[in-house]
Amino acid sequence: MIATALRSPAAHLAARYVPEPNSGCWLWLGSEVGEGYGRIQHDGSYVLAHRFSYELTYGPIPASMTIDHVCRNRACVNPAHLRILSGRENTLCGFGPAAVNARKTSCPNGHVFDAVDKTGGRFCRQCHNEGKRILYRLKHDLPGSGTPRRRAASV
């Protein structure tokens, strides 16, 4: 067996994945870090396998950029399935809460988000104003607040 130090980086990578014929993914068989990402030892330290594969094929990854799996498979090291994105772009193309909420264009009542608050949160003015009206009516015990008015105690 050839010692790892004598193998080329490409051969070192190729020894640890298997091509999956249906999706085209190269499934990582080596060690993993949390959440399914592969890791490989290179030059005495561990690096993420998908980043290693990308750099072997396309060159260095700029410090402020991340690698996105177009195939959505974290164990894939096929460089054709990897693309370089900013952290924000990578988050927004996923399925986490930030991405899901960023894709929304209307409130639960179907009104278009047409305002932005101080923190950058989006809302529709119609529901916002209706909520303020209800709170005002509740505070001042006015009709239309959604709760029955208090009745005077009978003697």
Task: Please tell me about this protein's structure.
The chain is an alpha+beta fold and 155 residues long. The protein has two domains: 4-94, Alpha-Beta Complex (Homing Intron 3 (I-Ppo) Encoded Endonuclease, Chain A); 104-145, no CATH class. 28% of the residues lie in helices and 18% in strands. The chain is built from five helices and eight strands. It has helices spanning 9-14, 49-58, 87-92, 97-103, 125-139; strands at 17-19, 26-28, 39-42, 45-48, 65-69, 82-86, 115-116, 122-123. It has a two-stranded antiparallel sheet. A two-stranded antiparallel sheet has the order 3-4. It is rod-shaped, with a radius of gyration of 27 Å. The chain starts with 8 loop residues before the first helix and ends in a 16-residue tail after the last helix. The model has no long low-confidence stretch (mean pLDDT 88).
Nutshell version of this structure?
28% of the residues lie in helices and 18% in strands.
The main sheet comes to:
2 strands, antiparallel
Helix content: 25-40%
CATH class identity of the largest domain: Alpha Beta
The helix count comes to: 5
Q: How much is the average pLDDT?
A: 88
Q: Mind telling me which CATH architecture of the largest domain this is?
A: Alpha-Beta Complex
Tertiary shape:
rod-shaped
CATH topology of the largest domain: Homing Intron 3 (I-Ppo) Encoded Endonuclease, Chain A
Provide the structure class: alpha+beta
Instruction: Quickly count the domains.
Output: 2
Strand line-up of the largest beta sheet: 1-2
Low-confidence residue ranges = none
Give the C-alpha Rg.
Answer: 27 Å
What is the beta-strand fraction?
Answer: 15-25%
Helix and strand run:
HEEEEHEEHHEEH
